[in-house]
Amino acid sequence: MDFTKEQLDYIDAPLDRHVYLKACPGSGKTEVVAAMVSKSVRQWSRFPSGIAVLTFSNSATDELRGRVRKHLKEPIGFPHYISTFDGFVLTRLVANIASELTGYKGKEGDFRIRIVEKTANIYRTHNSICDRKISACRYNFDLERARFIFSTGERGLDNQLNSTVFDKNIHDDLVATKRNLWQAGLATHGDIDMLALMAFKEPKLAVHFSRIARRFPVVIVDECQDLSLEQLRIVEKLSEFGVRFHFVGDLNQSIYGFRKSNPENVSKLMAKLEFESYELSTNWRSGQAIVDLCSNILGTGQVMSNQNIASVMPMILEYERCPSELLPTIRNFTQAYTNVVVVARGYTTLNRLRNGESVEGVELLAVACIGAGSGSVKDIKENLRVFAKWLAERLHLQVTKVGPHCPMNHPGFRGGLNS
Q1: Looking at the domain covering 5-94+196-280, what would its CATH class be?
Q2: Which of 4, 137, 211, 355 is deepest in the core (most CB within 10 A)?
């Protein structure tokens, strides 16, 4: 593969300094990181130390591992390591010292901490909080807001709990309940970062983190904009032991709001640790008009596009109540194309655009009529089904589950909707 000068600059970036690679959308970031890791692995002379490459999802980990293998012509192996950030904190930072942090006495010589889902209803508070005894699995401490944040699975209860100011007795009860969970050798994924931060405060565990720093002197974090405040604190603490970090990503692309990520916190840490900046400023998958629109909306610097892609001006369509209102316009704009892809942020919106599965009433009828107007036999068949559903609901009919919502023995509909 031929790399640009920007890409080559990062591939040759130093491993003994903190580095930030700012990569715009479509810049070939994953390929460049894989090439950089592969080059570093081939030249590595610090065995048994290794490079850790961390992502935020299993799919991203698998993708990066596959790209590195393509460049190395073999799987990446010891002493190097590709994993999720959560996996790294659990297995490398916390697992071997968990019993010292939690007081867990182990079971038959096994002192490993076990991860439980946050939905587990175990180890509940001694006192009722908002008329409920809350499981230790259903809340975590949020460093940024300096308070416990609840996730019980009940939106109303969560809103009530998260807006309540608790007195010292309730606060101590929450702390004690969480510690009871840990003493049993259990923890949620959200607890692991807190256990790691607790460990950094223990002087006796400095030797443990010094070994970690020698084992992984270089850590590359992909999609760095999605680091939570707790994870950034972990990064900062590891840097004090000599670990050098490469952050890769774009602070304008944070998507994990539920992970408590805040790109401003990432910027502050990079400034504090004096990260050296590199940049990939060419979007290889879009035309210039689309790139310019995105840059103007986000207020970012100049980004270049792939000059081999026509610069077609983008259009913004708005609807008043439901996405299905846009279907006639979308069909009109795309009728000259054979391959059309509609991308939606969520399944609900996508279903409304596809066949009206999640819409009701008049809107369902509108979707059926619009879709049938395409002239496609496939579309007509699908939208007859949608129309039958609307009609059955309108007439309050009991329908069969087989076929296009045929009424079951209803007077006046002896042949069903197939007649």
Answers
A1: alpha beta
A2: 137
